[in-house]
Batch of 3 targets.
Target 1
Amino acid sequence: MSSSSLWQPYTLGRLDLSHRLALSPMTRSRANPDGTPGKFAAEYYAQRASLGLLISESTQPSDDGQGNMSTPGIYTPEHVEGWKAVTDAVHAAGGHFFIQLAHAGRMAHPDNTPHHRQPLAPSAISAEQDVYTPAGPQQTPVPRELSVSEIQDLIGEFRHAAASAIAAGADGVEIHAGNGFLPHQFLAPNANQRTDEYGGSVENRARFAIEVARAVADEIGADRTGIRISPAIPLGGLHEGEPAEVRAQYTHLVGELAKLDLVYLHVFHVGDDELLGSLRGLWPNSVLVVRYGRGREQIADDIEAGFADIAPLGQFALANPDIVERLRTGAPLNEVDQTTIYGGDDTGYTDYPTLARS
């Protein structure tokens, strides 16, 4: 791992960062029943403030947006107050905080949502995936197809959630348009079989993500709006076609998003470097890349190759609150306890040892 690239300072929109690492968004399923962040959330994020830019776990913009159990929201006054404690703690520790806005769409189950309604999606096609519910794993049901007017309402929910995030003290938001979430469902032909302006062509399937991004940027500023994509990653039962089809879809999407001047593009990458290079070329601002299966020695590779400006860390940061110090000094890393990633109390959440207390 080259210190020459990873430890260079960087300006991301309004933020001055001292290095090129960040905290990748990771679901931890420890929110309170009302969707406010759990009692240990402020400590968890503040422990990792040395990463500079922290991106929160998936946070739903509405009741309909909840997919997994015990995930937080950012759409009620109580949510705003709960996240304010988190952002205050992160800022006090010297970090910056973006809240990831994520709508589960069809990747949901009525048992996990406050209102127990049928999930919403581009088309009435089940993901046929298991999700964890209070009764154990259950398959996702057939969702209800959104009307055009409901799609407009959803865009308004993202706008409201973004405003709520800023009111809670966040430095910005990341729109989740990958990993099987709702905007990704609109992009995938096997989940989106609409025949109106939101389905069919490459342009139409990209319309929802673009309109959400435009609404959020209009509400809080493009320099506080990022977006995450995951081309060709088959999470949530999605299939985006052959490589040429994926490239056509994402070069159009990213080209249109680039016109909005969003502060960053966050790519969860699985290996099509030709596509990644094309997206890098289309994007005028910062690019974050998380590469699937990347090891410790490969963290800086995408920065050195010119694909990325920032390298967010996932499980490395989950298990090592002082990951920045460990990487700088070459210290050994804690291993992740896979049994405590989702749900529970502070065990496997805020109790991973630092070098100072190990």
Target 2
Amino acid sequence: MKLKTILPAILFLSALTVPVQAQVGEQRYNFTVGINGGVNLNSVSFSPSVQQKNLMAPVGGITLRYVSERFFRMICGVQLEVNYSQHGWDEFYEDYPDLQYTRKMNYVELPFLAHLAFGKEGRGLQFFLNAGPQIGFFLNESYTQSGPWENYPNLTTEQHDMDVENKFDYGITAGLGVELRTKVGHFQVEGRYYYGLSDFYHSTKKDYFARAAHGVIGIKMAYLFDITK
């Protein structure tokens, strides 16, 4: 990705994670912590392209959220997560069902999110939007492979023998969800999408791939409880 494309997106989403102090709102000091978990539906944006289907893999970690104000009907805050997340891809060729290749890549990820919610502050339902930048640190990887790949030289297979070259991952993420607030804690369900801006393989003109970046659809549940109100 070109720098002039990356920087505006990161700066805009980073700005979202800072509560708007210039506006006059009702102040809040609500600090909430909890755990989250779910599944990722992973794919990789390759150029040249590689045929694949979504790879289902786990994600989970801790959530910290601070709500700073209510502005009219909108509840404003920030959210930080520290997650273990598995990415990768699963190659699929409808015309060659005997071929199989799956790569699983493990990361520690930190989403820095603006949290905007509408609904009940006490017991009841809230609907929320989370959006912001995300960074990740590569841990390790594994793969499984089977089939006579040597019989199909027309397929793109360079990625099979390439290790991760860029271990720092970054991109933008956004999600929509619903939160049930009860006297014993808050229960969330959220759908989220992550768009990788970085390539995990080198992607200069002399390299084989011009792009190799993660794309993730996530479905998560979380349990949170208040530390301060």
Target 3
Amino acid sequence: MQVKHLEITENMTINEFIKQLDESGVLGAGRIAHATNLLADSIKDPDTQVFLSLAGPMIPGGLRKIVRDLVANKQVDLIISSGANLTHDLVEAFGGNHYKSTGEDDEVLQDSGMGRIADIYTHADDFEVFEEEIQKIFADINQEYKQLSIQEFIYEIGLRIDDDESFIKMAAENNIPIFAPGIIDCMIGLQLWIYTQDHDFILSAAGDMTYLSDCVFKSKHVTACMLGGGLPKHYTLASNILTGGIDAGIQITLDRSEGGSLSGAPLEEAKSWAKAKKGSNLVTVIGDATVLFPLIVAGALDKIKI
């Protein structure tokens, strides 16, 4: 079959563009179309649960509202996130911002109270507000609870946020669980450690496993949508070993496979561990998730409307 070359036409819709990628069927274009169609089918199917994992700087990188809207519209059913993405959601919930790079030297940035994530800046003043506000939330939670699982803890934080653009708040309001197995490795974890130096409060990582396993067992089918790799990707896949693996998966990554890391591993490798079922529908899209995921979501939602 011949490659059908792309044609950009005036006033074409996002769905028409994705259809052309699908008809071309080659290289990155074909993978983007595959991921778009798979996400659309998964969102539409009432028997399929969509597990979204967030690694890397997805929230400071511009995806905060997209994730928030997917949660608010109940188009994802469960989130597994790095602690950093939760932290950056809260930074904005407390009035802070993320800023575009101006190309300053990193030592100059340090002197001016700025931190850098690639070409994204954060300001120390915003983190000072974060520290003050999160300590207040810890204290309020601690009035009711002496011990919580990580998922329960994030849920309680979400109930206490006054920002409708926060995906943590939207998840709490819509009863969509957020798991963050690496939450100690972020500013939330550091502030929690500081809080627990003179307060009686325990955060249980093992406490999440019963609820997460229940979510897996109750799901007829699971589609995992994984942005980046690392711990969130592994936690997403490993949790589904309990039922023989995910039924479908979308991975968007810039990592390579040669080093043997999970972040760069092709999804097909997950079949050998029963983290993905035999015959599962899997697609790995190589590229920047902050660019590709909005395109895939836009195409999927446009397809659903038709």
